[in-house]
Specification:
The protein has five helices and twelve strands. It has about 260 residues and is an alpha+beta fold. The chain has a domain of about 170 residues.
C-alpha cells in the first residue's frame, strides 16, 4: 500500500478500517501529513463517528494538506537544544474530535497521562512555536518535534471533523512549566520492535516538574492500563512512575 503503514503489534479490530486502509492506500501521497489525517479519520470511525467512502475522504482533504521534508536526526537534536532555557507561555492539545457532526472533543485527561492524539503545541516567550506530533521520519512511528506552528502539521484545526485546539496552559499538570526556563530537554531513543532507532518520546524538565511527550497509546479503548509505544498517537505523561509503567527508555539521563 502506498503511504499507509499498519503496525504489526497493533491489531485493527474494525473491518471497516481494514477495508478503508486497503482501498485508500493507492490514493495517498507519500506525505506524513496525509497519513496523520488519514488515521485520524479511521480512528474516528471506530469510536462512533460516521464512516465515509475513500473517494469522499480523498476529495475532502485533497486541497488542504501541506508537504515538507522528513525530519533528520541532526535537525531534531537542534530543535531540542533550542528548547533548553526556553520559557513556555502556552500549551495546546490537538485531540480527536468525535460525535456525528465531528464537533465534540474526545476524552483526553486521564490523570497521570493525557491523550492529545494528533499533537501538542508549545509557544515560547520568544514567539517560537513548537509542534510535537507523531510521524514516520525514522522508518517507524515515533514522536517528532518541529519549530513550526501546528497549522503546518494539521489541517482543519477547530473545524468539524478536524482536530479541536484545547488550550491546557492553566492545567495543573502544566502549571510547573509556564513562565520558567526549561532546565532540560532530550529525545528518548528506542531500538523499537523492528531494530530501528526511534524517537519514542521527548522529555521536558522544568525546575519543579518533568513531562514526557510520547508516541504511544492505550492498547485498548477505553484505556485499561496496557500501552503501546511507537504508534500514530501522542500522549503526555507527568509522573516518573507512569513513565516507567509505559516502558519509556529513561536510563539514559543526559540533556
Amino acid at each position: 500500500m502506498s503511504g499507509v503503514h499498519v503496525e504489526a503489534h497493533q491489531p485493527v479490530q474494525d473491518k471497516r478500517v481494514v477495508l478503508f486502509v486497503a482501498a485508500a492506500g493507492a490514493h495517498l501521497p507519500q506525505n506524513p501529513r496525509w497519513v496523520r489525517i488519514f488515521w485520524r479519520e479511521a480512528r474516528r470511525s471506530v469510536r462512533g463517528s460516521e464512516f465515509i467512502s475513500v473517494s469522499e475522504w480523498v476529495d475532502e482533504y485533497d486541497n488542504g494538506v501541506m508537504s515538507s521534508p522528513e525530519l533528520t536526526e541532526d535537525e531534531y537534536e537542534r530543535t531540542i537544544e533550542s528548547l533548553r532555557g526556553t520559557r513556555l507561555v502556552r500549551v495546546a492539545y490537538y485531540p480527536l474530535s468525535c460525535g456525528d457532526d465531528g464537533t465534540e472533543i474526545e476524552d483526553w485527561d486521564f490523570g497521570a497521562w493525557h491523550l492529545p492524539t494528533m499533537g501538542v503545541g508549545l509557544l515560547a516567550e520568544s514567539g517560537t512555536h513548537y509542534s510535537a506530533v507523531w510521524g514516520s521520519s525514522f522508518d517507524h512511528y515515533g514522536l517528532e518535534l518541529f519549530r513550526e506552528p501546528m497549522s503546518s502539521q494539521l489541517t482543519m484545526i477547530g473545524e468539524p471533523g478536524g482536530s479541536p485546539e484545547v488550550v491546557v496552559t492553566d492545567h495543573p499538570s502544566w502549571s510547573g512549566f509556564i513562565g520558567v526556563p526549561l532546565v532540560g530537554a532530550k529525545i528518548l531513543w528506542s531500538e523499537g520492535d523492528y531494530g530501528h532507532r526511534l524517537p519514542v518520546a521527548i522529555e521536558l524538565r522544568a525546575p519543579t516538574a518533568t513531562a514526557w511527550l510520547v508516541a504511544g497509546r492505550s492498547a485498548q479503548w477505553p484505556p485499561t492500563g496496557h500501552f503501546w509505544l511507537g504508534t500514530d498517537d501522542v500522549m503526555a505523561v507527568f509522573t516518573r512512575e507512569f513513565a516507567d509503567a509505559v516502558n519509556l527508555p529513561l536510563e539514559n539521563r543526559g540533556g
